[in-house]
Amino acid sequence: MKMLNRKRLDQLDEFIGKVEMGFCCVLLVLMVFVVGLSVFLRYILKSPLIAGMNMATLMLVWMTFFSASAIYKQKGHIAIEFIVNRFPIGFKKGALSFVYIIIAAALVITVIQAIRLVGVQWYQDIVALGIPRSVLSSPIVITGILMFLTTIRHLIDEIGTPSEKG
User: Fold this and answer.
1) Helix segments in the chain, DSSP class H
2) What is the per-residue pLDDT across 88-121, written as a single tens digit (0 to 9) for each?
3) In sequence order, what are the residues at sequence separation of 6 or more whose Cβ sits closer than 8 angstroms to the Cβ of residue 59?
4) Residues 6 or more apart from 110 whose CB is under 8 A from it?
5) Cα separation, 126 vs 92, whole angstroms
6) How far is CA 31 from CA 36, 56, 160, in A?
7) Residue 73 burial by Cβ neighbours in a 10 Å radius (0-12, 13-18, 19+)
8) Dist. CA 148–CA 156, nearest whole Å
């Protein structure tokens, strides 16, 4: 039963990761299109796209946070492992578990503060786009929650994996 739930959790996490990467790919294509169109309109037709750079910036922010979340799911983040890899397996598992607990705590704090930021920015506008400035900070909340869930999964994997003989 536990193995079935864990498998479902892994499948859900993998599906969310694919959705995140697909979303990032769409944003990248749109961003290249918008920047290219802006350059064309400004320098060839001498009629700039007023909101072009604001749209590109918005897409870049969203793409950055969602791609970070997708990469974190695959444990593709930056890590200094050469020191931890020299320790015995039991200590290594404990150290990695501690790191995941610290990451989870940092993500909780980040999400709480980002929610406050979204509340403040809700009443400010990105004038050129006519949308609330909170659209720039909302991916922090969304991906913070997704990364927190991923951290819990990594922690469960770390705790649940039997120690290897080394």
Assistant:
1) 2-39, 52-73, 89-121, 134-160
2) 888 888 888 998 999 999 999 999 999 999 999 9
3) 27, 30, 31, 34
4) 140, 144
5) 47
6) 8, 5, 41
7) buried
8) 12
C-alpha separations of 40 from 34, 50, 56, 132 in Å: 10, 13, 15, 28
Q: Tell me the residue length of the chain.
A: 166
CB 59 within 8 A of CB 27: yes
Q: pTM of the prediction?
A: 0.86
Distance CA 25, CA 139 (A): 16
Q: Which two tokens stand for residue 100?
A: 């995941």
Say if residues 162 and 88 touch (Cβ distance below 8 Å). Answer: no
